[in-house]
């Protein structure tokens, strides 16, 4: 078994011991510990295992050899081998046998539980699909002609296949789009990301994805019609890593076209956004609670850049991102929030998927699901992937297998339902709010700039290094060649990490056991970089140790090379060496998600032998440059290698085919297909009423550190509203003599001068009777605020009505803020609540609080926005009306009636189908007409004990194609369902986008408990004050079912931006907390 050579030794030891030894062992069984003595008597499969009849050899062969991989047992076995006393050795052997038996039983139990879980999930998915199609009157389940998942109709030639891929009457992206000037945002959050000298392989977070996104950003910026590409990642200012990862910006490429009037900001850039602890490099599993802060920082950069680009190429109108593209689950989560805040399309690339990884880990049987989740935060990762599917317009995959076998495991994607909904959309038939993301296969691009395609001339089998080249020979070549007795033989090249999944040991066995292969070729294994095997991870160390043992076992010295180190720049040289010897590249992985190395090898003229599992199947169909094999069949591996190496005509044919078709995997081809697909999405962006002023808004106090110091990097000057002064700007103007810079500074100075009188008026209005009952402003005052205090206290009585403590908190916060001249300067207030506007106004009236004391009222759990005292949200009869722009903003993918019908079925009927409720059984929910509006479906909870948890209910809605945001609120007495793009936290981001009030200048006042969306409000770049002892009971008990992710996966355990008050409601405590939060934020 791969990675477990010690088990073979253990098996041989048991066989050598014979029946007499086993009998002797059982004779001494009374010396064993009680637990060990009792274990053989346990029932298994209906039979008793009696010590006298238990055959450890048979059991080991049948049940254990193929299933156990436990390093702890390996260490024990080493001790057993070292034991000389035969009786002690036998006792240890028997104890190991029972331990392995216990592990095998545990593994089988976990496999059974996993099987039951998958069967239940499969049944629920099918039930959800049937339920969804029942609500769709017309049946278009067959779809259109050639309408297959991902449009992957396999065809005769790669060119026809590409054309079929774009067969939806799509116009292929071309030079005719040069005038579009698009702004594209990519996000790759974890790992160490930089443009040059990438530290690939430094850790598990810095691998192929980093190289992929950097090259994608560069390639997209060179396409016609693309003006600027920003690659967002986390800023890391830690002594653990190089200083370059702390730089706010890094230019990757300048604009691609000359003489077309492009401005300074054209090209591709890495934008690093600070989030989480500034001085620590965090592995990806620890980044989850810091994602909201990353989103807020990214939003600040995008808003500033949209204005900069508007000045350069937009005629003064903001240039919004054409698309926001998230890579991996964490970036997908971030992209979903950003695209929702900006109302622009989202694209997702999963790279590797959580559900697939969870399946693999469970199959190993070494960890329970709870242990796996504690290590990898796998449940939080899966939920992020589901959220990404909710928001994504397009999901890009590398292979068809990824769509069918990996994304098919998710609640948010169903192959059959996706085809039905797509067919209805094509025919213009209403889907009642149901949606499935579009999956398309676009293989990753490759940079072939360093590849020189050679003519297939008859090459001499002489020196590998020509005359005069000896001195210039790369060091990696000499490192490899020193291993070989005859370096002129064809080279079999394998390049991968020493991971058990890469199946390197099977390759070495195949080579060692095939005499013709050994005589014909050499084997080169490039297995990452290492200094000391003992310092490597246990899995990698086990593979390397096994490889070394196999080399010794088959006496492969002089035939196998395994250098300890290589640089990324050495890889092309290794490919060239293998091609010059007329060698073969092999990827024998058990499963290969895609196989970039196969494309690299083909570009350098190397035929391939590859696993038949995963992405290599699609690569082989496109390139037709080698053979596919079963990775478990070492004889098949040896035969395929021999066939390619021995048949020179076949070798040359595969080489030519690879070169002929390799352009299909080039970056220009990838980007052309990418932009063609993105252009087919429903392009949308923020749209406000035309009569709303935008040019006279107060400049944001801060637009993100990522935009400072970047004039050289083609980013325009940004202004900090709290720190700027006229004299400082004039100093900058004097220092910089360039005309363009002077023009920019003069332009900003003029804007500031125009705004100064308005700002003074706004400041005076705080002390004038601006908030009187008779005063009505044409536009909301919030557009002039520099700070906003948001009161989000979810305190309700047993009936779900507002508790009087809410009024007390409001009055105390007003008192505290207005008592401090610095704090009250240009400050406003907002109330965020689950109540509808009618109940909110009644509450304020009962406490003699004027609605106009608030600049904004966020009602119905974030589905409605009101601006008291403004004409925009006031009707002729004096009633409030909701912000119509916000209503349009959150309308996307909202199916009011479909959600209402489905929730009633799922909650009130046992089977969720509307036909399994007895006449005497009570309803769990009923519609709350008073709280329901166009963008909020509210239900009264009649029986909380039977209410489904939020994550369970959300899962069932996803399986039915319904994408929405739901929460229990008001002391678990209401269930409210609102649009996907709506929430109380997203409403604050809307205020930032709409009115320019930076989230970093907001203060959230909340309780320790609250509605089930309470956690979403706590983390981010805003300051949060949590008041202890104010909220007696929240709705959190209905948030998650057992086995779900926990609060610490969404809210940081320790953050300088989150402060607590002492128990009780005291003005001095609130003031202390607000100042503490402000001081902490200024020190970050």
UniProtKB/TrEMBL annotation:
Record keywords: Glycosyltransferase, Transferase
Pathway assigned to this chain's UniProt record: Glycan biosynthesis; sucrose biosynthesis; sucrose from D-fructose 6-phosphate and UDP-alpha-D-glucose: step 1/2
Cited SUPFAM superfamilies: UDP-Glycosyltransferase/glycogen phosphorylase
Name of the protein: Sucrose-phosphate synthase
Entry's EC annotation: 2.4.1.14
Family: Belongs to the glycosyltransferase 1 family.
Residue ranges annotated for the Glycosyl transferase family domain, each copy included: 486-658
Superkingdom of source: Eukaryota
Cited CDD domains: GT4_sucrose_synthase, HAD_SPS
Pfam families registered for this protein in UniProt: Glycos_transf_1, GT-B_Sucrose_synth, S6PP
Domain Sucrose phosphatase-like per the UniProt entry, residue ranges: 821-1039
GO BP: any one term: sucrose biosynthetic process
One GO molecular-function entry: sucrose-phosphate synthase activity
Domain spans labelled Sucrose synthase first GT-B: 183-448
Subunit-level organization: Homodimer or homotetramer.
Biased composition regions of type Basic and acidic residues, renumbered to the chain: 121-133, 755-769
Catalyzed reactions per annotation: beta-D-fructose 6-phosphate + UDP-alpha-D-glucose = sucrose 6(F)-phosphate + UDP + H(+)
Coiled coil segments of this chain: none
Function per UniProt: Plays a role in photosynthetic sucrose synthesis by catalyzing the rate-limiting step of sucrose biosynthesis from UDP-glucose and fructose- 6-phosphate. Involved in the regulation of carbon partitioning in the leaves of plants. May regulate the synthesis of sucrose and therefore play a major role as a limiting factor in the export of photoassimilates out of the leaf. Plays a role for sucrose availability that is essential for plant growth and fiber elongation.
Region of interest: Disordered: 23-51, 121-148, 755-777
